[in-house]
Write a structure and sequence with these properties.
Blueprint: H1 3-18, H2 29-74, E1 80-82, E2 85-95, H3 105-112, E3 120-126, H4 132-145, E4 150-156, H5 159-171, E5 187-197
Antiparallel strand pairs: 1-2, 2-5, 3-4
């Protein structure tokens, strides 16, 4: 939670403390309507605060991933301090192949460029209720013996594994390396400002 999120949470907590719930009373239609209206008001305020938090997070991202890192790099500033925190530009990597897209070209590219070992192959069998023993034995006998099983085969590359591989490829000094097309593996290579609390 960043400072803006914390401030909003504190404001909401203060309002809640200033307006404690009323003492329980006999249920009346009027009181029920009041409570329903209060829920509507709370939901509206939550929605507005969530929208504001989303805006603040987007603005923060624009600063640390674009504006500030570009200015610091251009000025050759390796570190700066503000408000008791240290701001330091560093490389940024990200790579994601959507699991839902089993025919995604990223899988094919990895397999064709000697990186297929990054891909996990999952075989998922769904059994009806009451077939626990059969499900346990199905590891090696899935399609041969248990015809009631619906078998699905999926490929997956964990985003952290793929991101680490992309970073290692990019930072490798191998002159024969072949970098993947970033759009094919959902990749991003850039720089971002890392923020840490300054040591006292």
């Amino acid at each position: 939670m960043d400072e803006d999120d914390a401030r909003l949470a504190a404001e909401l907590a203060a309002e809640a403390a200033a307006n404690p719930p009323e003492e329980a009373s006999a249920p009346t239609l009027e009181r029920m309507q009041q409570l329903a209206a209060e829920v509507n008001d709370i939901d509206d305020r939550i929605a507005k605060n969530e929208a504001r938090i989303a805006e603040l997070n987007e603005r923060r991202r624009a600063i640390v991933e674009n504006e500030l890192v570009e200015m610091m790099d251009k000025a050759h500033v390796q570190m700066l301090q503000a408000g008791g925190r240290t701001f330091k530009p560093q490389p940024y990597y990200k790579a994601v192949i959507p699991v839902a897209e089993q025919d995604h070209p990223g899988f094919t590219w990895l397999e064709e460029h000697e990186a297929g070992d990054l891909i996990k192959n999952q075989v998922i069998a769904t059994f009806p209720r009451g077939t626990e023993e059969e499900a346990a034995a199905a590891v090696t006998l899935m399609r041969e013996r248990f015809q009631m099983a619906t078998v699905e085969k999926r490929r997956d590359v964990h985003h952290m594994t793929l991101t680490k591989w992309l970073r290692e490829m990019h930072e490798s000094g191998d002159p024969n390396k072949i970098m993947p097309p970033l759009d094919v593996i959902g990749g991003t290579i850039g720089r971002v400002v890392k923020i840490t609390s300054s040591k006292s």
